[in-house]
Amino acid sequence: MIDLHTHSTFSDGSNTPEELVENAHDIGLTAIALTDHDSVNGCVHLQSAAKKYPDLLAINGCEFNVRHPANMEIIALNIKNLEPYYERQTTLLKYRNDACLARIEKLQKLGYHIKWEDVAFDENGNQRKTLAKPHIVNFLFQTEQITNKDKAYTELLGKGGAAYIETEAPTVEDTIDFIRQTGAVSVLAHPCLIKLNEHDLYNEIIRLKKCGLQGMEVQHSDMSADELKKYQNWADELSLLKSGGSDYHGYNAHYGIKLGIGRGQLNIPHEYIEKIIEASGK
User: Fold this and answer.
1) Which region, left, alpha or beta, applies to residue 90 given φ > 0 means left and ψ of -120 to 50 means alpha?
2) Which pLDDT value is given to residue 142?
3) What Rg value do the Cα atoms of the chain yield, rounded?
4) Distance between CA 23 and CA 255 in Å, rounded?
5) Using an 8 Å Cβ cutoff, are 169 and 95 in contact?
6) Under a CB-based contact definition with an 8 Å cutoff, are residues 145 and 112 in contact?
7) Nearest 5 degrees, angle CA 170-CA 174-CA 177?
8) Which of 52, 53, 144, 243 has its CA 20 to 30 A from that of 68?
9) Could you tell me the maximum CA-CA distance found in the chain, to the nearest angstrom?
10) How far is CA 136 from CA 94, 155, 179, 241, 274, in A?
11) DSSP string spanning 216-243?
12) What's the order of all strands across the beta sheet hosting 215-220?
């Protein structure tokens, strides 16, 4: 069993890359990919920690925010050369931090007591490399300014919410092309969360494949049993590589999700990563 979609303290997860590796080993995973948002800063730590466990395959990855009207993200898997990603993330992380600052300013105007400094540092006093919605939501919850985190994501910070800010991002086509040029594999993240009806989503995946998309997640914590079957069938029909992951964030977000198994329904086979590695040429 493997997990190809996880987040660490280098984006909006609550576990360090080292802790993710330890947890993966403890539960018997054979492969884990670190896919922090727009950042590969944790990958060196992942690889270093994984040296202790020769039977655990550590995969460098990144989950990219993209400009698309349907709330889409693209994952790069099996990144062999981190340098182009370091260069790209400088701009992408600035987009994220600028958006978070704008959210905080909107929240202040709405009467919430929150400052940049309240979320810019972790519980150990270290400045975060990037800020994200979970850091804002957790602060508001801890200071008892909100009582329901899920509602804060959807009704306050979500699209149409009073403090909604859209994060600037490259197009999905540009992102797929970038991943291809670096020799990694591009994967459509959590199709179950994309805001398109079934017919339009299927056709959009066909279009993205023509743009160079190589794979799609067919297992994810938010997929129902029917969706698990549907997306696996779609991948077969469209000759796309299969991927899957829990989207584990620890206690920061996506509550109730466990590494490897999601909400209990995931069982991602090792052959997925074998085929992804083969497709990326190593």
Assistant:
1) alpha
2) 92
3) 18
4) 17
5) yes
6) yes
7) 145
8) 243
9) 53
10) 17, 14, 30, 35, 38
11) EEEEETT--HHHHHHHHHHHHHHTPEEE
12) 2-6, 31-34, 57-65, 73-77, 185-188, 215-220, 241-245
Distance between CA atoms of 247 and 277, rounded to whole angstroms?
20
Q: Two tokens at 221?
A: 């914590």
Q: Would you tell me how many other CB atoms lie within 10 Å of the CB of residue 21?
A: 26
> In this predicted model, which residue has the larger pLDDT, 127 or 57?
57
Kindly state the tokens that stand for 211. 């743009």
State the Cα–Cα distance between residues 23 and 179, nearest whole angstrom: 28
Residue that the structure tokens 């460098």 belong to: 60
d(CA 249, CA 159): 21
Q: What Cα–Cα distance (Å) separates residue 240 from each residue in 108, 127, 197, 270? A: 45, 39, 20, 16
Section 172-184 average pLDDT: 98
Over residues 76-80, the mean pLDDT reads 98
Average pLDDT for the chain? 95
Residue at 105: amino acid letter: E
Residues paired with residue 271 on neighbouring β-strands, in sequence order:
none
DSSP-assigned letter for residue 156: I
In which band, very low, low, confident or very high, does the pLDDT at 282 lie, cut at 50, 70 and 90? Answer: low
Return the percent helix, strand and coil in the chain, to nearest 5.
Answer: 40, 15, 40
Q: Is the pTM of this model over 0.85?
A: yes
- Amino acid letter for position 115: K
Helix (H) or strand (E) holding 34: strand 31-34
Cα separation, 72 vs 99, in Å, equals 17
